[in-house]
Amino acid sequence: MEFRRLIAVAAALAAAFVPSVALAVPPTGQPAPAFSVPTPSGKPLSLAALRGKPVYVNFFASWCGPCNEEAPSIGALRAKYAKSGLQVVGIDELDGDGQAAAFEKKYHDPYGLVGIDDSGSVGHAYGAIAMPVHIFIDRRGVVTYARMGEMSPAEIEAAIKDALK
Question: The domain spanning residue 64 has which CATH number?
Fold first, then answer.
């Protein structure tokens, strides 16, 4: 696990030398970048399979303090908006084997859907150079809000409501 943390730190340092446009979170009003990642059980999880539903994608890592702080609120909001069709996807970024499943268990399944981004390629496409990253996508597959960094439960809920419109 320490090796993966070292890689994540090295990636963040390297990002300092990459033009910021290349690492920006997706702009609002634009289609969300497509992705397909394995789940902890090895099944595929793709954004295309969720088309027609509002989606909240949260990039996280088990070692990320803010990710751990947000997880209970994300789970509560997922339950609150499930009847509205909201799909919550957690993308585990560059974490150790089994960490996504342990995180899900620890926080009583806050995401509902979890994908593993071992290579960091999906995170790169979404500008995830630090955790957490929050992406809210409407039913048409368009980004309604994107933000890097911790969000309060009220901020997350407001962004969910915008994606549900």
Answer: 3.40.30.10
Nearest CA among 20, 26, 23 for reference residue 55? 26
pTM of the model: 0.85
Domain assignment of residue 88, given as a range: 2-164
Domains held by the chain: number: 1
- Cα separation, 93 vs 100, in Å, equals 9
How many C-alpha atoms does 146 have within 13 Å on its Cβ side? Answer: 21
C-alpha dist (Å) from residue 93 to 20, 42, 71, 142: 20, 16, 15, 22
Average pLDDT value for the chain: 88
Residue 162 tokens, joined: 């915008």
